[in-house]
Amino acid sequence: MHFASDNSSGVAPEIMAALAAANDGYARSYGADALMERVTAQIRQVFEAPEAAVFLVATGTAANALSVALTCPPWGAVFCHDKAHVAEDECNAPEFFAGGAKLVLVSGDHGKMTPATLAPALARIGAGGVHSLQKGMLTVTNVTEAGTVYTPAEIAALTSLARAKGLPCHLDGARFANAIVATGATPAEMTWKAGIDLLSLGGTKNGCMGVEAVVIFDPARAWEFELRRKRAGHLFSKHRFLSAQMAAYLEDGLWLRLATQANAMGARLAQGLARINSVTQAHPVQANMMFPEWPGGTNARLQAAGAQYYAWPLAEGREGARLVTSWSTREADVDRFLSAF
Ligand SMILES: Cc1ncc(COP(=O)(O)O)c(C=O)c1O
């Protein structure tokens, strides 16, 4: 009953096997390995983007912070949701790597910005000339930090406002596969066709050991990213082990099969909880992460029964929790949790 994070799951067997296979013999270092060529070809095909540039890093924070740095000048504003990972969970890495950029927090229910909340924030750009907020970039997270999912149309509604102001647009796709499975959209529809210029494509949460891809749809920006990655200490010498993970992840749709399992277990858990009268959900459950609320005392009982997850007290005798399912969650894990409840 491990629902603390999709990061607490292990490595998918196919990816572990690919790592072992990559360990055979010698390969060129620093991203010049043959497996990286394969990864670039796979991503270009999956995203219907024959020109896309692809870079691998080991953490989502690196992918996001370097993406922000590439697209936002030091004096620029980074528009993001007020609960965004870049704002809450990256120790100011985006601001640091962008040389002092300012995060502008945009509100919105259930983890999502809307045109109505984004537009007034964008309107502040340049309002006071040299003294005021300057043009930077927009970053959107899908799956959101609230476990909800933007449709491509919802993303396009945000990017069209940002692009009208000349802002490049980034997608934090730490759980991109889960968002694709949840919506049925194609990777292209969710990104460049919806106005996204660059993407942090997650691997780690969904069965890799530690790899994320930055996909840049405008190849003119590729060399600068290459330099920024090296300068930040994120260019791996034994890069083939990053490539091997991402190549296996994308091979024959493994990434989507893993996310399908994670989302299906999320749905099973949410459906089971929906049958319990005292349980409510803080946000609609749309992928593999949920925030149930239940009567006081429940967390102690569930945790005594062996369930693992993050919990917190709420007002009026209620308690909250975050439950995350992953590619390795089994029906039996979910059912045991529901029985324990
Ligand atoms: C939305 C989101 N973005 C990015 C990340 C990547 O973070 P890390 O640097 O821990 O790999 C996470 C991980 O929790 C996340 O939830």
Q: Can you offer a commentary on this structure?
A:
α1 (13-22) runs antiparallel to α11 (240-250), α2 (34-46) runs parallel beside α11 and α6 (115-123) runs parallel beside α7. With 341 residues, this protein is an alpha/beta fold. It has a seven-stranded mixed sheet with strand order 1-7-6-5-4-2-3, with helices on both faces. Strands 8, 9, 10, 11 and 12 form a five-stranded antiparallel sheet that branches. It has helices at residues 13-22, 34-46, 60-71, 85-88, 93-97, 115-123, 152-164, 176-183, 187-190, 222-231, 240-250, 254-274, 298-304, 331-340, and strands at residues 53-57, 76-81, 102-106, 134-141, 169-173, 198-202, 212-216, 280-281, 289-290, 292-295, 310-313, 318-324. The mean pLDDT is 97. β4, α7 and β5 form a beta-alpha-beta unit. The radius of gyration is 20 Å and the shape is globular. It has two domains: 11-254, Type I PLP-dependent aspartate aminotransferase-like (Major domain) (Aspartate Aminotransferase, domain 2), CATH 3.40.640; 255-340, Aspartate Aminotransferase, domain 1, CATH 3.90.1150.10. It contains 14 helices and twelve strands. It binds pyridoxal-5'-phosphate. Pyridoxal-5'-phosphate is lined by residues 59-61, 64, 85, 141, 145, 172, 174, 204. Pyridoxal-5'-phosphate binds next to α3.
